[in-house]
């Protein structure tokens, strides 16, 4: 077994160990963000580059080890860096984390991950075989499966790395921007002593818009099926 195949497993195992040893998931809450807002905002203001790099690294690690709390991190990005900055850093971090998990799934660890994601992979197999890029773009725009499963399935089903990264980065932009915008307004909610209801983030028109984008991403697949279903017209010389 080569070092290239073992190294991703070792890195992932180390990240998982650190995350669960320090119980990182218990800190990924809005209460933590509210209680430490002054210190966090001051740190970002005084150390913009370090703060940005730290946020991207933390987000990438959370995605790579499939920690719960990605929504909270996305809201925190908007709260700390603004709508545009937060969305951009989140997209970068999430894409790096997804790419890392993709590569790990292609390593010697793939069989273990295949067993974990087996049912989800089977349900997504037809879509990826027909048009992997369009189908992944649809799944990113309209999350019908858990994020970790959508990270694993393309690798296990043979999708190429560059299209995977491209579709992931593009597909998560709309939803990420919405969450970042909501996060940017958390300061006013905290000041008013209000409760944050994550269900309020996506209004029906917004959900309809995301579904519409998802349908557009499937156009190549729909056109392919339409052409395949058209009767062949034969012409003869007179």
Give the helices and strands, then pairings.
Blueprint: H1 3-21, H2 30-35, H3 37-46, H4 48-64, H5 70-105, H6 110-141, H7 147-156, H8 161-171, H9 173-184, H10 186-192, H11 204-217, H12 219-229
Q: Average pLDDT value?
A: 76
Count, helices: 12
Question: CA-to-CA gap between the ends?
Answer: 66 Å
Largest sheet, if any? none
Net shape: globular
Strand content: under 5%
Quaternary? single chain
Structural write-up:
By secondary structure, the protein is an all-alpha fold. The chain has twelve helices and no strands. Helix 1 runs antiparallel to helix 5 (70-105), helix 4 packs across helix 5 and helix 5 packs antiparallel against helix 9. It is globular and about 50 Å long.
Which short descriptors sum up this protein?
mainly alpha, globular, 238 residues, disordered C terminus
Quickly describe the structure:
This protein is an all-alpha fold and 238 residues long. It has helices at residues 3-21, 30-35, 37-46, 48-64, 70-105, 110-141, 147-156, 161-171, 173-184, 186-192, 204-217, 219-229.
